[in-house]
Amino acid sequence: QLQLVESGGGLVQPGGSLRLSCAASGLTSDYSYIGWFRQAPGKEREGVSCFTFNTGMTNYADSVKGRFTISRDNAKNTVYLQMNNLTPEDTAVYYCAAGEVLYRLCVLQRLEYDIWGQGTQVTVSS
């Protein structure tokens, strides 16, 4: 069974940066992509970015394009989300998740993901 553990969340001022990590263990070869989602209080969980393992292609929500970068370290079985120029609207619990379908380009629909981590809180405030 695949397990995902997020880390790297915290409190940051507007304009600041954070790097989130999603460490995978278990049956990592069964999964085709890992995505990052976020959920703010009172809002639905939304897709932020994802990384497709077999093609290396990435996908981003419009709200984070140009500010967030997703990357993967094969040796560490870890996917990172570098978040720059953060705003209070980025405040949320951030989750990583893994999906099995062999897409050429991963998608940001939560129903396409099978395994979820426990989440890490990101708070952007002065």
What does this structure look like?
The chain has strands spanning 3-7, 10-12, 18-25, 33-39, 46-52, 58-60, 68-73, 78-83, 92-99, 115-116, 120-124. Strands 2, 4, 5, 6, 9, 10 and 11 form a seven-stranded mixed sheet that branches. Strands 1-3-8-7 form a four-stranded antiparallel sheet, with no helix packed on it. The chain is 0% helix and 48% strand. It has 126 residues and is mainly beta.
Uncertain segments of ≥5 residues (pLDDT<50)?
none
- How many individual helices? 0
Instruction: Tell me the strand percentage band.
Output: over 45%
What structural class should be given to the helix and strand makeup? Answer: mainly beta
Oligomeric nature of the chains: single chain
List SSEs in N-to-C order: EEEEEEEEEEE
Keywords, separated by commas or semicolons:
126 residues; mainly beta; seven-stranded mixed sheet; four-stranded antiparallel sheet; 0% helix; globular
Structure summarized in a few sentences:
This protein has 126 residues and is mainly beta. Helix content is 0%, strand content 48%. The chain is globular.
